[in-house]
Amino acid sequence: MKILxxxxxxxxxxxSVLLPLKGHRVIICNPYTRTLKAEEIRxxxxxxQPDALIAGNEVLDRTTLSLxxxxxxxxxxxxxxxxxxxxxxxxYGIKVVNAPDVCTQAVxxxxxxxxxxxxxxxxxxxxxxxxxxxxxxxxxxxxxxxxGIIGFGRIGSTLGRFAKDLGxxxxxxxxxxxxxxxxxxxxxxxxxxxxxxxxxxxxxxxNRHFIDEEAISLMKxxxxxxxxxxxxxxxxxxLYDALEAxxxxxxxxxxxxxxxxxxxxxxxxxxILTSHMGSYTFESxxxxxIEAIKNLLK
Length: 298
Fold this sequence. Notes:
- The protein is of the alpha/beta class.
- The protein has two domains: 2-100 and 281-297, NAD(P)-binding Rossmann-like Domain (Rossmann fold, 3-Layer(aba) Sandwich); 104-273, NAD(P)-binding Rossmann-like Domain (Rossmann fold).
- 33% of the residues lie in helices and 16% in strands.
- The protein has ten helices and twelve strands.
- The strands form two sheets. Strands 8-7-6-9-10-11-12 form a seven-stranded parallel beta sheet, with helices on both faces. It has a five-stranded parallel beta sheet with strand order 2-1-3-4-5, with helices on both faces.
- α2 links the parallel β3 (52-55) and β4.
- α4 (104-120) crosses α6.
């Protein structure tokens, strides 16, 4: 097989993950530290015409897939499939597989880290000291807070268990009506109104900008918003206004509609911005790559 790999940093942590592909032609085509843009992945597909693609988060729409004349399988190195036109893939006879479990712990831990950073102003204090300022910033305990999780699948429920063990009340909204032994299901509006901390852990699907000005207006004054799911879930202009006005206490954001991000949220001190690194632990990246290769070969 001719296998195209579009995932950035693939096999950089452990080159032995490539051993099962011995005998196949492997082309690692992403030289950047970011997701490939549409024109870039299209160019690589046209140039190499792969039989298989190990994909990252790049957009694989109908136009892109129509250029892949020999492609038989897309193995997603990760969980989300919202960047792939699954209907088009089916029309072109391309099988799509993913690795739904490998990112769970890593993304859940990053979400928790962002929550603590927001509550205790860790990053903000670090910046102050580097600028010659010595201020004892007052934050909040996580103990006793109500954390509302939107999307209670693998990542959302894992984060919920962390929060429960830390003494939080855990509520969640999930349209699939999943069951939990330690958390309470609520409506979307009730979650917005009663949560001290809101974490987004849902797929994009038809949810673009569902956290908009109206949704933010329903949140408690002084609430914290965490997004480690998909950037397009949130209207970041509305979030900026809420953070600047003090409606929200803080936000922790790992994902953006346009990446790398350079928008106006960078002007605010009460938002922590990370570079879509939810899955970036050494352990998770290696496991993700192994799983993607296993799924492809299987």
